[in-house]
Write a structure and sequence with these properties.
alpha+beta, globular, 4 helices, Hut operon positive regulatory protein HutP, 4-stranded antiparallel β-sheet, 150 residues
Length: 150
């Protein structure tokens, strides 16, 4: 089992949560919640990037991580866009260039650092999984993370 840093930051929590599973994931998420972060982990697979964005946004709303106000939706959108851009190495698009993605995603909301730094709340999104041609065995691992103030 991992030893979770008591000073884990928002972005690091998002990235590690999306990569860990089992007992390590449970311990990490428990520590994150103890430090005041709110988080959710889900999965999505698609050849259509809009379905990836929609899955993350739907989960964030359903889990109460964002509300209907523009600034919250906007912060989430740009966090997903940054994570997606990193995952695609800056090359936008999946299906249009015959690539598919099977991803785990994690959304984390809270202060950039535990206990806050007076900078308000932020939202981080991490995407991790496989991307490649839509043929089993032709994919490779990808990771992206985005973070924005709310």
């Amino acid at each position: 089992m991992i030893n979770v840093d008591k000073n884990i930051t928002l972005g690091k929590l998002a990235v590690l949560s999306v990569m860990y599973s089992g007992e390590d994931e449970s311990a990490l998420q428990k520590k994150g919640r103890e430090l005041g972060y709110r988080l959710y982990k889900g999965k999505v697979g698609s050849m259509d990037s809009s379905k990836i964005f929609a899955a993350v946004e739907t989960a964030a709303k359903k889990e109460g991580l964002i509300d209907q106000r523009y600034r919250e939706e906007h912060a989430l959108y740009h966090s997903v866009l940054e994570a997606y851009s990193g995952m695609c190495r800056g090359q936008g698009g999946l299906g249009s260039i015959l690539r598919s993605a099977g991803l785990l995603f994690c959304i984390v909301r809270g202060s950039k650092i535990p206990g806050g730094d007076g900078d308000g709340e932020w939202i981080a999104v991490a995407l991790y999984g496989n991307m490649g041609a839509p043929i089993k065995g032709y994919e490779h691992e990808v990771l992206g993370m985005g973070m924005n103030p709310i």
